[in-house]
């Protein structure tokens, strides 16, 4: 069981499905750099600039993948924190989860009230919520969502762990001191 080093909680990765895409993108950047270097061999200034740009492109691709590895989904006492690298970060309280289903879907344009966090154009878990949660877009616009589709490397484990966590959250003993008297 992987836990979050910063304060407990269970982490669920989603970067494994990106490995082939990342490797292919890095290879394409290297090949493009080599090709442009050959094509621009008669222009000394550009011939020296192209390798720097190619190195920057490969580093950018690696950084995007590293962000996905370093920021996995997190289940803790606050709820389920769903992330997509540095682009999305949504906290779904356990009490808001009506159901969690493992279903592989191809990402498509979602309607209002739905949030899609795909990896490789696929999602593998669908959450139905009892009440909407706030999601802030990359530019800070607030959206209320009541259905969340996201990808996890081990969707069955996520669904099973969520079901247990939701069940425990709903059966927490009352902290009431007793009947009024």
Topology (SSEs and partners):
Blueprint: E1 10-12, H1 19-39, H2 44-70, E2 73-76, E3 79-84, E4 88-92, E5 97-106, E6 114-117, E7 122-136, E8 142-150, H3 155-170
Parallel strand pairs: 6-8
Antiparallel strand pairs: 1-2, 2-3, 3-4, 5-7, 7-8
Model description:
- The structure is a single chain.
- This protein is an alpha+beta fold.
- The protein is built from three helices and eight strands, in the order E-H-H-E-E-E-E-E-E-E-H.
- The strands form two sheets. A four-stranded antiparallel β-sheet has the order 1-2-3-4, with no helix packed on it. It has a four-stranded mixed β-sheet with strand order 5-7-8-6, with helices on one face.
Helix content: 25-40%
Question: Which structural class fits the helix and strand makeup?
Answer: alpha+beta
| Strand arrangement across the biggest beta sheet | 1-2-3-4
Say how many strands there are: 8
Mean pLDDT over all positions: 87
> Major sheet, described briefly?
4 strands, antiparallel
Identify the overall geometry.
Answer: elongated
Estimated radius of gyration: 22 Å
Distance between the termini: 46 Å
Low-confidence stretches: none
Percentage of β-strand residues:
25-35%
Order of helices and strands: EHHEEEEEEEH
Distinct helical segment count:
3
Give a brief rundown of this model.
By secondary structure, the chain is α+β, with helices and mostly antiparallel strands. It has helices at residues 19-39, 44-70, 155-170, and strands at residues 10-12, 73-76, 79-84, 88-92, 97-106, 114-117, 122-136, 142-150.
């Amino acid at each position: 069981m992987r836990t979050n080093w910063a304060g407990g909680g269970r982490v669920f990765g989603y970067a494994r499905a990106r490995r082939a895409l990342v490797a292919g993108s890095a290879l394409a950047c290297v090949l493009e750099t080599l090709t442009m270097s050959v094509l621009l061999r008669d222009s000394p200034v550009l011939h020296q600039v192209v390798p720097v740009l190619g190195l920057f492109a490969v580093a950018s691709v690696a950084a995007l993948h590293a962000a996905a590895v370093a920021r996995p989904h997190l289940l803790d006492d606050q709820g389920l924190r769903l992330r997509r690298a540095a682009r999305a970060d949504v906290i779904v309280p356990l009490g808001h989860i009506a159901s969690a289903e493992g279903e592989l879907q191809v990402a498509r344009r979602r309607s209002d009230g739905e949030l899609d966090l795909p990896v490789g154009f696929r999602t593998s878990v669908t959450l139905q919520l009892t009440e909407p949660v706030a999601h802030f877009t990359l530019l800070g616009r607030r959206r209320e969502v009541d259905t969340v589709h996201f990808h996890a490397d081990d969707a069955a484990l996520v669904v099973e762990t969520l079901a247990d966590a939701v069940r425990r959250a709903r059966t927490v003993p009352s902290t009431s001191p007793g009947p009024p008297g």
